[in-house]
Amino acid sequence: FRPEQNNQFRDHYLEVPYDLSNVLFITTGNILDTIPPALRDRMETLNLPGYSREEKLHIAQIFLVPKQLKEQGIEKYKVKFSDNAIYEIIEKYTAEAGVRNLERSIVTICRKIAREIVSNEEPPKRVISRNLEKYLGVPKIYPSEIEKKNMIGIATGLAWTPYGGDIILVEATLFPGDGKITLTGQLGDVMQESAKASLSYIRSRAEKLKIDNKKFKDFDLHLHIPAGAIPKDGPSAGITMATAMASIFQNRPVKHDVGMTGEITLRGRVLPIGGLKSKILAAQRAGLKKVIIPEKNKKDLKDIPKSVKKALDIKFVNNVDEVFDIAIEKEKKIKKKPVTEKAKYISA
């Protein structure tokens, strides 16, 4: 990888030197973290985002379906795949950034249709959502779902995975104790530090947030992120954890249709994050209406399809207090009814 230092490779079996000075190595992978640091340091990295649902649909209808109909020998039967069927295969039978498993699913369907034809059965004219289980079995994947109503102590975050974006629910609860914090859900070191920074910020702003300081001393805080079997790490859930904590301490619900991503500092600044395109696509897929992202990620919106940007209300923030104002329900003011003359007389 450094021809100015090592321009030859010697094969220990053949004992023959190979000149590698003009060789360009191109490698691919899903996760950078598993590449040894010494090797990664000598490589130029190009990050390619995963396909959106719309892009996968286009690839399937224009390329994959015609290709497999021809290869399986059923092209003349002109079997069509509905758009909804393709979307359902994408969401409930595959979990990937590319289209490899999508093509495998289409191959399976085409082969089973070919078997029906050989068995003198009438092949379907269209593959639709209703008959997917007949060919692919029960769904293998259950997409993450947002809460149906506003909840106290539950905030929706946006996450990046090697297979694309996803949503995560951060849950916080209080119970009598002595001020300890418990973190569960297989959180990595960076995520645990982010949770502690979030709590420290909220404690430092207790008076402004109208939180009684006794809550920090007389109660324990438990923060949990579901899907406990899956390891999680990274700083981008910082504002989500802070929002869940602020909600439980203030006893005010978080809006269920608001998602967010951003790193938090002890001073409450919101720092930029990576994987924005995948996260925004996940927000739209999950049915969120509003997304909160760091102001410094504004430049990354050029990678987001226009249809997705139109479907979401994207808010840019620099500070966590702005996040709280957008995501947490306002405190309801109780209107006092005017005292009537009769009531005055009775009270007297």
UniProtKB/TrEMBL annotation:
The keyword Protease applies. GO terms for biological process: protein catabolic process; proteolysis. Keywords: ATP-binding, Hydrolase, Nucleotide-binding, Protease, Serine protease. InterPro entries: Lon_lid, Lon_proteolytic, Lon_Prtase, P-loop_NTPase, Peptidase_S16_AS, Ribosomal_Su5_D2-typ_SF, Ribsml_uS5_D2-typ_fold_subgr. One of its GO terms (molecular function) is ATP binding. Residues 149-330 form the Lon proteolytic domain. PANTHER family: ATP DEPENDENT LON PROTEASE FAMILY MEMBER. It comes from marine sediment metagenome. This is Lon proteolytic domain-containing protein.
